[in-house]
UniProtKB/TrEMBL annotation, chains A, B:
Gene that produces this protein: plsX
Record-linked InterPro entries: FA_synthesis (IPR003664), Phospholipid_synth_PlsX-like (IPR012281)
Phylogenetic lineage: Bacteria, Bacillati, Bacillota, Bacilli, Lactobacillales
Keywords on record: Acyltransferase, Cytoplasm, Lipid biosynthesis, Lipid metabolism, Phospholipid biosynthesis, Phospholipid metabolism, Transferase
Pathway assigned to this chain's UniProt record: Lipid metabolism; phospholipid metabolism
Organism: Limosilactobacillus pontis
Subunit structure: Homodimer. Probably interacts with PlsY.
Similarity section: Belongs to the PlsX family.
Protein name as it appears in the record: Phosphate acyltransferase
Length: 343, 343
C-alpha cells in the first residue's frame, strides 16, 4: 500500500512531515511512501530511505492561496502531483498538512468523488472527554467542506460516517445523531427538520435523534452528522473555548506567585491527562469522505506525533478497505439518492 | 420605573426570584415591582413589601410546554399577564426565568415589535475571557430567537446591538463583527457574503469584518452579529466545552489522591478567578431586542445573584432609554429597511 505524501505542506514542512513519515514507516511494514516536493529540501532530512521515494516537484501552493485557482495553475506543485498520482492508481491515498482548501479541491477535482456521492464531507474524529465514557472518540462530519448543504448531502454523510466508525474505529452499529439546535424531533430550520425525518426513515441507520453542540464532547453519539456550516461553527467554538480555558489556567498560574506554581506542580498529572483527553492530534487528521481514495489533511501546525498518527489512521482505512465498502454500498443502494425529493 | 416580574418562572421559583428582586429593590430606589403569580406561594417569601406588589395569577406555563400554544391558551398565567401589563403601559419592562419559548412568544405577540423591526433578536452579553483584555464583555445576537434569518434581520441586529453596547455597556463607537466561517470578506454562504457587504456599506456602523466562532471570547469585537442558527450553535458549543473542561479538572482532582487535592487548594484562587471570568450570571439575562419594552429572560437555573444582576441590567436599559433611542432610529431611518433587496 502506497501513500502519496505532500512533503512541502504544513508550518514545519518538510522537516516534521519527513520525521512523522519515517516513524510511521518503521511502525507499518506494509506501507510505502512517495514524497512529493523539492528534493534538495527533502533528501538531507531523510534518515533511512527504506520504502521512501522522492518525486520531485518545482512549484508550491502556499497557505494563503485561493485553492481552486492554485490547483488549476500550479500543475507541478506537490499537492497537485500527489493527488494526480492517486487518481492514476500510482498511490492508494493522499496525505497533506498544507493549504486546506487546496487539498480539498485537489481531492474533489483530481482524485474524484465516488459515483453517487453528491458532496464529499470533511470528517474529523473528535475526543469524547467525559470521564468514564465507554468510548474515546466520535466521528463528526461535514466539518466545513460545504458552506451550503441539502438533505441528500446529510443523509450521505450519515452513511459515510457510519462506515468510517465501523471500519476504522471498530464500532459496532454506531449511534448516529443529527447536530441540531434542540433535542426534540420538531426542532431546527426547514433543512434539519427534513433531515431528521429522512435519517429516522432508514432501517440500516441506528439513528438516535438530535444532538446539541453543547453535548458534542459528552459521548452521546458515535457519529454526529451536520451541514458543513453548523459543524464548522460548533467545532471552532469548541476548540476556541478549550484553548481559552487553558490560557486562563496558564495565566492564573504565571501570575499567582509561588503558591500557584506549587499548586501547578502538584496538579501537573491532572493537567497532563486533560491535555491528552482534549488533544486532537491523537485522533489523526481530517478525512474528505466520499472520494475514490483516502484524502487526509492534518493541521498545518501538526507535530511529528500528529503526522505519525494520521499515517496510522490512513493505514487502518486502507487495511479495512473503507473505500471499497463505501463504493459497494452506493452502487448497491442508489435509492439513498432517489429517496430524496429536494436538490 | 416599574418591572413586571414573572414570579413563578425558573427552577427555584418563586423563592430565588423573590430574593433576587428584594436585593435589587434595595439597590435601586427608583424601581418598583409587580410580582405576577400565586399569592399563597409568593406572600410568605416576601421579607419587606416596600415597592413590591403581588398581582395574582391562577395558571402556570411549565418548562416543557409548546410556547405559542401556551401563551394563547393560558391567559391567566404569570407570563401572559405580566407581558400584557407591559403592553398596556402598566409596567415598563418584563422579566422572567421561565419557559424561554413562551417568554419570547409573549414578547413578540403581546409586548410587540418596534415599528420597522422585522424580527427581534435574542441578545446575550458574554464574557471576554482573554487575560488583559481592555473590555470584559461583548454583545451577541441573535442567539436563537430565529432559526432562519434574512439579510435585513442581520443588518437590524447590528443596530440593535450597537445601541445596546452604547447605552447599557457604555461603549463608545462599538466595533461590530459578523460571525462567519472565515475571516476574509468572501467567506461564508450566500447569506453571510451578502450581509458582509451590507454591513460594510453602512457609514454609521463601525464594522470590522468577520469573526470566527473560535474567537468569540477573545474580545475582538464589542458586538457580534449573527443569524440565530449559527450563534446558537456556537454559544452552546462554547458553554458545553467550558463546562466539560471544568468537569475534567474536578474529576482529575477528585481522583488524583492527596497530591491533587493539595494542588487544588493552592490553585483555588486561580480557579475562582476563572470561574468568575466565565460566569455568565454576572452579565445578566438574555434580552429580546427590537420589542417596544425590555423583555429579559434569565436561565431557569439562575440563582439570586443572577436575578439581582439581571434586574440591574433592566434598570440600566430603562435609565438609558434604550427603547426610545431604538424607536427614534428606526423611525428616522426607514432606509435601513429599504436598502435590502431580499425578504
Amino acid at each position: 500500500m502506497k501513500i502519496a505524501v505532500d512533503a512541502m505542506g504544513g508550518d514545519n514542512a518538510p522537516k516534521v512531515v519527513i520525521e512523522g513519515v519515517e516513524q510511521a514507516r518503521d511502525l507499518y511494514p506494509d506501507l510505502e511512501f512517495d514524497l512529493y516536493g523539492n528534493p534538495d529540501a527533502i533528501k538531507p532530512l531523510i534518515k533511512n530511505d527504506q520504502r521512501l521515494h522522492i518525486i520531485p516537484t518545482t512549484d508550491d501552493i502556499t497557505m494563503g492561496e485561493e485553492p481552486v485557482r492554485a490547483i488549476r495553475h500550479k500543475k507541478d506543485s506537490s499537492i497537485v502531483k500527489a493527488a494526480t498520482a492517486v487518481k492514476n492508481g500510482e498511490a492508494d491515498a493522499f496525505f497533506s498538512a498544507g493549504n486546506t482548501g487546496a487539498v480539498l479541491a485537489a481531492g474533489i477535482f483530481i482524485v474524484g468523488r465516488i459515483k453517487g456521492i453528491a458532496r464529499p464531507g470533511l470528517t474529523s474524529v473528535l475526543p469524547i472527554a467525559k470521564p468514564g465514557a465507554s468510548r474515546h472518540s466520535f466521528v463528526y462530519l461535514d466539518t466545513g467542506a460545504n458552506a451550503e448543504s441539502k438533505e441528500k448531502n446529510l443523509l450521505q454523510y450519515a452513511y459515510l460516517g457510519k462506515f468510517y466508525s465501523e471500519s476504522v474505529l471498530g464500532v459496532e452499529n454506531p449511534r448516529i445523531a443529527l447536530l441540531n439546535n434542540g433535542a426534540e424531533e420538531d426542532k431546527g430550520d426547514t433543512l434539519h427538520k427534513a433531515v431528521w425525518q429522512l435519517l429516522n426513515a432508514q432501517d440500516d441507520l441506528n439513528f438516535i435523534g438530535n444532538i446539541e453542540s453543547g453535548d458534542l464532547l459528552y459521548g452521546k453519539a458515535d457519529v454526529v452528522v451536520s451541514d458543513g456550516w453548523t459543524a464548522n461553527a460548533a467545532l471552532k467554538a469548541t476548540e476556541g473555548t478549550a484553548k481559552m480555558m487553558l490560557t486562563l489556567i496558564r495565566h492564573g498560574i504565571m501570575n499567582g506567585g509561588l503558591r500557584a506554581k506549587l499548586g501547578y506542580l502538584l496538579l501537573k498529572p491532572v493537567f497532563h491527562k486533560i491535555g491528552q483527553a482534549m488533544n486532537t492530534s491523537t485522533y489523526g487528521g481530517a478525512v474528505l469522505l466520499g472520494l475514490k481514495a483516502p484524502v487526509v489533511k492534518t493541521h498545518g501546525a501538526s507535530d511529528v506525533l500528529a503526522i505519525k498518527n494520521t499515517i496510522g489512521q490512513i493505514h487502518t482505512m486502507l487495511k479495512a478497505d473503507l473505500i471499497g465498502k463505501t463504493v459497494d454500498f452506493f452502487t448497491d443502494n442508489p435509492e439513498v439518492d432517489k429517496s430524496v425529493k429536494s436538490e
